[in-house]
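ok so for the tutorial part 2 we go from a plain amino acid sequence to predicted structure tokens. step 1 is just haveing the sequence, like this:
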Amino acid sequence: MIELFHVSKVYRDTVALANVDLKINPGEIIGLFGENGAGKTTLMKSIVGIVPYQGTILLDSDPITRKNIGRISFGTCEHSFFGDLTADEHAQFYREHFDTFDEKRYNGLMDFFELPRNRKLKRMSTGQQNQMEVILALSQGADYVFLDEPFAGNDIFNREDFYKVLLGILRPDETIMLSTHLIEEVSGFVGRAVLIHKGKIIGDCDVAALEENGESLTDYVKEIYGYQPDRVGKALADITGEKDI
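step 2 — the prediction. this is what the tokens look like for a chain of 245 residues:
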């Protein structure tokens, strides 16, 4: 289990995380939702140790250090890899640094995405680079996989097929947390939804329980965020000067 206690992060005058408490259990598939700037990326980067923070983050009751960081992997749409290395050269880098590297999963996902193994990453499209981030994060052999907007630049058919593949390859105790704006698209894939707004966790629900109560994940998110259905009409009326738009 990963546990966050009173985790905060401030960038100059901007509060990215504000006293966050959160537990991430083994075997969960979690959707992390929030508007741009809500704190999704900072939350993930804090867990994997990319950014400094205030508070405490524990992995099975231990601090996250070099000794156990291999149990956590991170895939980002920011293209953090080496542009002059090929896909297979990146895989070799992972083999040398992670004893848990899953060769079969790597090869299977490379074939699924039909990615060129010997092309430098900087020569790949944006979508292909994002796919490589996802593949290596999933192939590291980590217990907790964090994916930040992993499907940017990918078409809907590729995304839908990938959800199915991902469900088929995950170990029972393997945890996935992915941040995305595609709420409706992932509603049938995630089992838990965590909502963040202005650096604070404002919602945390079991998706199956929502459905049993006849509520969709999209409706839940709109309710928690206080979405106003008439905001577009009001905005257009203000812009055009016309009423009842």
